[in-house]
């Protein structure tokens, strides 16, 4: 399988472990990897002193998370990254559809106990994605 594998990250240890699984899977099947971090709002703050001003937004923070993970995973495969607007599952699915990805990789965080009842990103992606979904075991992370 060639093509693109999409993985979602949020800066947590479980997301990092899922991203490492995605990288290994992409390398094994000859695919490239696209790292996505979701943001759900357009909150923007302006900081500054005098004529110097900095604009910080949720999108910037999400892109920074995705870029940091992508840089850590780069090596023998092509790795790209982006920030995507929406709730995590929704953003991953939309990004995978936009890229015509072959697979989405997510961690299995919140798939046990009360999280299972309340819902998880993995559960939502597995039920709604239009491509294959791989759920990586991330319980021993964090």
Automatic annotation (TrEMBL):
Stretches assigned to coiled coil: none
Domain UspA, first and last residues per copy: 2-135
Cited InterPro entries: Rossmann-like_a/b/a_fold, Universal_stress_UspA, UspA
Family: Belongs to the universal stress protein A family.
Name of the molecule in the record: Universal stress protein
Organism: Pseudarthrobacter psychrotolerans
